[in-house]
Design goal:
The structure is a single chain. By secondary structure, the chain is an all-alpha fold. The protein is built from 2 helices and no strands. It starts with a helix and ends with a helix.
Length: about 90
């Protein structure tokens, strides 16, 4: 009976040690997850800024003396004018 209790005690100690190690590992993984989520957020922000900058470059390049780019520039200007007209209409209501 005493031998059986000793085996149960040893297994219980191993379980407690395993639990402790897994708890520490879980804490580390949660910290890594939080860091990765912050990095993802930062990268998404960078992508958004780069896309905005790319649009600005495309628009600025479209004002050069290239015929194809002039068509794009006119389309962009018309789009901006429509947006302005919509805003004015909303303000008048």
């Amino acid at each position: 009976m005493k031998v059986l209790l000793n085996k149960v005690g040893e297994k219980l100690e191993k379980l407690i040690d395993s639990h402790s190690l897994l708890t520490q590992e879980n804490k580390i993984l949660l910290e890594q997850k939080e860091n990765l989520l912050q990095e993802i957020s930062l990268l998404k922000s960078n992508i958004k800024n780069l896309n905005h900058r790319l649009n600005e470059v495309v628009i600025s390049n479209s004002f050069q003396n290239n015929q194809n780019d002039n068509v794009l520039a006119k389309k962009k200007i018309n789009m901006f004018l429509r947006e302005i007209d919509k805003c004015i209409a909303l303000l008048n209501n």
